[in-house]
Design goal:
Bound molecules: zinc ion
Strand content: 15-25%
């Protein structure tokens, strides 16, 4: 800050920033209509943090800085719900659904309209607001008594900390984990040797019941709100209008809802979403059907257990049987040894499946999975094939309990359990499987992006002792490559050129490529931008790393440990001598504002064949000029650059009336762009 602010100025500025940040956040997470680029948000956020650090008294409960979590609880307090959360009666067939409609019609004396909503597979929560401020969040519990999880719910970005109106209101809905976050979380956990979550609902529940809200903050949870405990302050007379009203006052609601005039329309809706469910970004397990008019709901009332005016249609679980033919064990980059079931191919939820991860030895033992067992499989989060259970009735008579390996399938060294891990690990640092995985990772697209070095080629190089670590790649000569299978002069030269080109990469690619535990591509970028080069990063300490926004103690610890290793410094020397760039070449967030470019703040889709640039080059350049490159065309797209043979994306852009540029036009726009000055 240029001058010292008085407390009054600071208070005013903080209030402005809070309002603005909360609005941007709502636009992004609730309304799905982002209006500013991340760096604009980040900058305002940093300003607010600076003010709050100087004047801690100015921190309010609706400050976005309160979303990162921090307080660690000793346990969860009990919360009594003044108005209990009801549960719904389930129906499982069209007949049962029709019978429900018959009962409703009989009770009210005429046909009724229904509001249909997706049944999100998450955890029911209740959020309380006083004068528009979020004051308490609780789990459903048994419907009457739940647990206070306010601190954790604050970290969920779509939960408004402050409503648009100063209402006192209690709303209910579902807190869930989107499929993508679920898959990512499980991948990370598996690589870290931890237990995985069976489905997004368990993952959401596990995340919400963390005593340390910082952990919850990292889990990318989301919410859909669908009901109000007491409609007192609201105008709506129907469920459909209530959903619209909830959205208006700032809650995230699900937009797939539909008002159906008859039970036949309800059935069409059910069939439609039974098909669509696989493609939704979150998991659903059925459809909730409510009599739309509140006055009719009141007339129908409740049974002892549930409302008479609503029901939940449950989709049949998508589980199929197949046979486990074999269990394969593979060694990952960090030495975790993972079992995979090889199964007789079978169709489930839209695709043919023949392999499923069995995660770890405990998992196999817990489910008592054996070779030749018939098992039921399903897709977790509609994506990942999982073994639900063994069909014991079909187990062959001569079946033998599966014996877990005791030694690495590749190098033969003894496998161990580290700390509290469930995973088996090969801890031999020279284990060829790990070395090969490390090489594969180094050349991969988000790392050094070296084309032509597929797993087969790398494996041969390693086995022929041409390459034992990543620095050796830079010492390869044409005659070395020609000793490999299927590599002729031309491809050898292409590989050498690709390796040579990778030396110029901005350093975040190298940092990611080194394979430091827990350092993903995103963290690598943050570290690269902050420290500027690899030497500086290698000399940094825990405190300076953890001071960075979004870098936690696990990453910081891992980075420091990595660079404390003498062998790493030898590797760095070799890379340096080979001429590999150690500097950050990307643009800094603070500089982006000074960029002048037709791409700035624009969302761009590249499609068709480009002749002057590779996709990667075009993407990187546009991003350096403050643009964002995305994969699919939507209403949010500003420009579509169409190269040769552009297909459906071009058609879609034309339908939506989005600006379409030729590659020449893009080249001109790039020529007009001015980078930020140093
Ligand atoms: Zn090994």
């Amino acid at each position: 800050m240029e001058h010292e602010m008085t407390i009054d100025e600071a208070a005013k500025k903080a209030e402005e920033l809070r309002t603005q940040l909360n609005r941007w956040s709502r636009e992004y997470y609730v309304e799905d209509k982002p209006t500013v680029e991340d760096y604009v948000y980040d900058k305002a956020y940093a300003q607010l943090v600076a003010i709050e650090e100087q004047y801690p008294d100015l921190i309010t409960s609706d400050s976005p800085t309160q979303r990162v979590g921090g307080k660690v609880l000793a346990g969860f307090e009990k919360v009594t719900h003044d108005i209990p959360l009801y549960s719904l009666n389930d129906v499982f067939s069209k007949e049962e659904l029709m019978a429900f409609d018959q009962r409703v019609q009989k009770a009210v004396g005429h046909p009724v309209a229904y509001c249909c909503e997706l049944k999100i597979d998450g955890l029911s929560v209740s959020l309380r607001y006083e004068d528009g401020q979020f004051v308490r969040g609780a789990t459903r519990g048994d419907g009457t008594v739940g647990e206070n999880i306010t601190e954790n719910l604050k970290t969920v970005r779509s939960v408004p900390l402050k409503l648009k109106e100063p209402m006192t209101i209690e709303v209910r809905g579902e807190c869930f984990m989107p499929k993508r976050s679920f898959v990512q979380l499980n991948e990370e956990r598996e690589a870290d040797g931890k237990d995985i979550f069976a489905n997004p609902r368990n993952a959401a529940a596990g995340s919400l019941r963390q005593l340390d809200s910082k952990i919850t903050a990292k889990r990318n949870l989301d919410t859909f709100l669908y009901t109000v405990a007491d409609f007192g302050p609201m105008q709506a007379k129907t469920q459909y209008d209530a959903l619209e009203e909830l959205e208006k006052i700032g809650f995230h609601t699900n937009r797939e809802k539909r008002l159906c005039q008859s039970i036949d329309e309800v059935w069409s809706y059910i069939e439609e979403y039974h098909e669509k469910r696989v493609d939704l970004p979150y998991e659903i397990d059925g459809i909730v059907i409510k009599v739309n008019e509140f006055s009719l709901q009141e007339q129908l009332g409740f049974t002892v257990k549930a409302p008479r005016w609503a029901t939940a249609y449950k989709f049949p679980p998508e589980e199929v049987e197949t046979v486990i033919e074999d269990i394969e064990w593979t060694v990952g980059r960090t030495g975790v040894v993972t079992p995979t079931a090889v199964m007789t191919p079978v169709r489930v939820a839209g695709t043919t499946v023949s392999r499923a991860s069995l995660h770890n030895g405990d998992y196999i033992q817990m489910k008592d999975i054996r070779i030749n067992d018939t098992v039921q499989i399903y897709k977790a989060g509609d994506i990942i094939p999982e073994v639900a259970q063994v069909v014991f009735d079909k187990r062959p008579k001569d079946s033998q309990e599966y014996e877990l390996p005791t030694h690495c399938p590749v190098c033969g060294s003894e496998l161990v359990h580290l700390d509290e891990e469930v995973a088996l690990r090969c801890i031999n640092p020279k284990c060829p499987a790990q070395m090969k995985e490390g090489l594969n990772h180094f050349v991969s697209r988000n790392a050094m992006n070296i084309d032509g070095l597929g797993p087969r080629v790398l494996e041969q190089m390693y086995d022929k002792k041409l390459v034992s670590d990543v620095a050796d790649l830079y010492k390869l000569k044409e005659e070395d490559l020609l000793t490999l299978d299927k590599i002729k002069e031309k491809s050898a030269n292409n590989i050498l050129t690709a390796i040579d080109n990778s030396k110029d990469n901005s350093v975040e690619r190298l940092i990611f490529g080194l394979g430091i535990r827990h350092v993903g591509a995103k963290a690598a970028k943050i570290l690269a931008e902050h420290f500027g080069d690899l030497e500086a990063l290698s000399k940094s300490d825990f405190e300076s790393i953890i001071a960075l926004d979004t870098i936690g103690d696990i990453i910081a610890d891992s980075v420091v440990t990595y660079f404390s290793n003498e062998e790493v410094h030898e590797l760095m020397n070799e890379l340096k001598q080979a001429g590999v760039n150690f500097e950050y070449k990307g643009i800094r967030t603070s500089q982006l504002e000074k960029v002048e470019s037709p791409f700035k703040d624009k969302t761009i889709v590249l499609t068709g064949k480009l002749t002057r640039f590779t996709r990667e080059e075009a993407k990187e350049t546009i991003e350096n000029f403050g643009g964002k490159v995305t994969g699919s065309v939507s209403k949010k797209t500003d420009i579509v650059v169409a190269g040769e043979d552009a297909g459906s994306k071009l058609t879609k852009a034309q339908e939506l009336g989005i600006e379409v540029w030729t590659e020449e036009k893009m080249a001109e726009a790039l020529a007009e762009s001015h980078p930020a000055e140093e």
